[in-house]
Write a sequence for this structure.
């Protein structure tokens, strides 16, 4: 186990955690983008009604 750590390899549990973290980060950024898109869309509609 110690040699794997010095060689830079990760265990399966750590790799799974890294992959899940990357996926959650990408999903969060997608939701953040759509939140701003929806905000500008709603503001545009509200300003057109006035």
């Amino acid at each position: 186990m110690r040699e794997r750590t010095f060689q830079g390899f990760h265990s399966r549990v750590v790799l799974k955690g890294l992959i899940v973290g990357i996926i959650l980060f990408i999903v969060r950024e997608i939701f953040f983008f759509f939140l701003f898109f929806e905000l500008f869309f709603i503001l545009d509609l509200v300003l057109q009604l006035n």
